[in-house]
Known about the structure:
Elements: H1 8-20, E1 37-43, H2 48-53, H3 62-65, H4 70-77, H5 82-89, H6 91-100, E2 102-104, E3 112-114, H7 122-131, H8 151-156, E4 165-169, H9 174-177, H10 180-183, E5 186-188, H11 200-210, H12 222-236, E6 240-245, H13 247-253, H14 257-279, E7 288-293, E8 317-318, E9 320-323, E10 331-332, E11 337-339, H15 342-350, H16 354-360
Parallel strand pairs: 1-6, 1-7, 2-10, 3-11, 4-5, 4-6
Antiparallel strand pairs: 2-9, 3-8, 7-9
Helix pairs in contact: 5-6, 11-12, 12-14, 13-14, 15-16
Amino acid sequence: xxxxxxxxxxxxxxxxxxxxxxxxxxxxxxxxxxxxxxxxxxxxxxxxxxxxxxxxxxxxxxxxxxxxxxxxxxxxxxxxxxxxxxxxxxxxxxxxxxxxxxxxxxxxxxxxxxxxxxxxxxxxxxxxxxxxxxxxxxxxxxxxxxxxxxxxxxxxxxxxxxxxxxxxxxxxxxxxxxxxxxxxxxxxxxxxxxxxxxxxxxxxxxxxxxxxxxxxxxxxxxxxxxxxxxxxxxxxxxxxxxxxxxxxxxxxxxxxxxxxxxxxxxxxxxxxxxxxxxxxxxxxxxxxxxxxxxxxxxxxxxxxxxxxxxxxxxxxxxxxxxxxxxxxxxxxxxxxxxxxxxxxxxxxxxxxxxxxxxxxxxxxxxxxxxxxx
Length: 373
């Protein structure tokens, strides 16, 4: 999350060219049946290589991955095939989401999800995915209010969604990305797990969060973020909840492949807990869709896997996944080209509001293709 590269003139041109290559607009398919709520979770800077291939032995070394005990990491995550390795690392994604929904971005299946903003680092990526288009003005990770209206802000102003949208993140830039003051919905981007504790349970969560060390500047551990989001889900029951997890990116920047994989495994477990908590509530059971994504990729070699940004071309490639009522169970999509900018309209389309969102945000890319039955 710490890249702030600027090459404005070149990127304005690159932005214009990428817009020409966006998936063509087409009439939205009928919305998936029964979806009334959407949960969105992002794993910051988590590579497609691990999503589709799992543990990479070439990075499980001291020089390239900071791994002092490769045999211990291998015992946790190494398996005989890529399919077995990825399921060991991300059991919920592969045993539930991929079987009941769709996963995009596996080059081995002729599928690619790419970033269109040309920067390949965090704030531009989050803005692109949540607003539905790349904006060359969003060119740093500085704490500046996003000039673009996100799908979260748009939904919060829709009938039936007012006060029913919330966002939790591990990065203190989240309130600026979603323009918290302007948007008017609940945003928790740093500090306590619960901003306004109203029970002993919530006060205990805040005490536990306060006991964790401040390891990174501007970034808290993911456990307070997800536990705060889980408690908000149970007690406030938003219709749209966004959770931004961040440890995968931080441990990768620190060249700790062991902790990067562990953070991914825990992120997958967090998503399972979020999904199970939703299915335990009548307002969500059988009425909720799940969207998973990342803000940028990373390098593809032992030398540059820790990095991203304009000098790391491999960082342009990312992944996405969708599951929920009415979503076709197609597993890993084959021969599908998609972009990060399609996430916003996908969230709206899952709720049956895809056409309305794109009328309000005409520069937004269309939803991901062929989701509904």
